Amino acid sequence: MPVQESWGAVDEHLARALLPADAVLEQVLAENRAAGLPAIDVSPLQGAFLTLLTRVSGARRVLEIGTLGGYSTIHLARGLPGGGRVVTLEFEPHHAEVARRNLHRAGLAEVVEVRVGAALDTLPVLEREGAGPFDLVFIDADKRGYPQYLEWAVRLSRPGTVLVGDNVVRRGGLVDPAADGDPDVRGVRTFLDAVGAHPRLSATALQTVGAKGWDGFALAVVD
Ligand code: SAH
Ligand code: DHB
Ligand code: MG
Fold first, then answer.
1. At residue 128, what are phi and psi to the nearest 5 degrees?
2. 44 Cβ neighbours under 8 A, 6+ residues apart
3. 32-69 pLDDT tens trace
4. Is residue 215 helix, strand or coil?
């Protein structure tokens, strides 16, 4: 079996062994595809990882940058205790509309607020409203924006806040000289350097393989 096919097969095995069957989540993915959204949602196992991180961190207030159809959002929201809230930021009105529908179907319409606009416009509004500090921030919008999203994430955090950055490996683009001119790869490199150099962050990153190919998460906690 070619190695990449094995990653997918192993993901399926792990998901079958570990994750409960979930008609809502399956329907959300089907709705996203039917609505023409790109298939760049986190994988089911990665989603379960987000639920788990939310739970173990005891997060009550979660910020997500990059909603798409709300598949990751649902996983984050499911890790919250009663009364917990997610604010999720999305640039594309069509994505936000699909996400709101999905969140409603998942019974989370009252738990999650979807805000439409470029995150660099909506993040300052959140700060002005005093919406922070957030307990967990999931950064997953345009990769070229990651360095600025990092700054905002830290501004809207408290000591102990967990930061998660998706897609920091990008099939090895991170270290591929041929990708030096790619603004998304550059964004991720600058983001990782800024995380590592930040005086208030302790961080690591984990590479992942699976149904979504080869990628990785950066994980940090605010000191
Ligand atoms: N978190 C989702 C996937 C997000 S894909 C999941 O795993 O299910 C990235 C999303 O970021 C897309 O929906 C894209 O429209 C959105 N996006 C791109 N640029 C943005 C910006 N400047 N501000 C907010 N969202 C943006
Ligand atoms: C892309 C974006 C994502 O958030 C993701 O998880 C995978 C790919 C992309 O823009 O290619
Ligand atoms: Mg992503």
1. -60, -35
2. 11, 15, 19, 25, 211
3. 999 999 999 999 999 999 999 999 999 999 999 999 99
4. strand
Cα of 112 vs centre of ligand 1, distance in Å, is: 16
| Residue 182 burial class via C-beta count within 10 angstroms: exposed 0-12, middle 13-18, buried 19 and up | middle
Question: Ligand 1 in contact with 39 (CB < 6 A)?
Answer: no
Span from the CA of 1 to the centroid of ligand 1 (angstroms): 33
Q: Which residue of 116, 142, 208, 212 sits with most ligand 1 atoms within 8 Å of its CB, as the best mutation to test the pocket? A: 142
The pTM of this model reads 0.98
Phi then psi for residue 188, to 5 deg, are -70, -40
Q: What is the CA radius of gyration of the chain?
A: 17
* DSSP structural state of residue 19: S
| Residue among 67, 163, 83 nearest 75 (CA) | 67
Distance (Å, whole) CA 103 – CA 177? 40
> Could you give the C-alpha distances from 216 to 35, 79, 206, 207, in angstroms and in order?
27, 21, 5, 4
